[in-house]
Design a protein that fits this description.
With 119 residues, this protein is an alpha+beta fold. It contains 2 helices and 7 strands; from the N terminus they run H-E-E-E-E-E-E-E-H. A hairpin with a 6-residue loop joins strand 4 and strand 5. The chain is globular.
């Protein structure tokens, strides 16, 4: 895929590309984990299960804030320790370093949404 080729040629780090059944399609997983600051404004936790303690819904605060001292290398990727959305659809946020973001923006990949975060 184009994204995988860009990632590899730029020497980016932190992602694992998992091949899917269709040629040139991959699931992507960031291996490093960074801590999301859940005390940031507008982060919402709803419907906590009394049995397991998991939340039925976790809403993302805006802007996204990572815990103080968190570092994502300029060409690196990481995922948040907290997963967002509802029930079984929850997933972590994928975070990338500043240089990786510049490279990806300049590549004009389809359906790529990058936003600034606070670390």
């Amino acid at each position: 895929s184009k994204a995988k080729a860009i990632y590899e040629s730029a020497g980016m780090t932190g992602l694992r590309f998992i091949p899917l059944a269709h040629p040139n399609l991959y699931a992507v997983r960031a291996e490093p984990v960074v801590q999301y600051d859940s005390s940031c404004q507008y982060t919402r936790f709803e419907n906590q299960c009394v049995t397991c303690g998991n939340w039925g819904f976790v809403g993302i605060g805006t802007p996204v804030v990572l815990m103080p001292g968190t570092v994502v290398p300029p060409l690196g990727f990481a995922r948040t320790d907290l997963e967002f959305a509802s029930k079984d659809e929850k997933s972590p946020l994928l975070i990338c370093g500043d240089e990786a973001a510049k490279i990806l923006k300049s590549a004009k990949l389809k359906r790529l949404d990058l936003e600034k975060i606070k670390a």
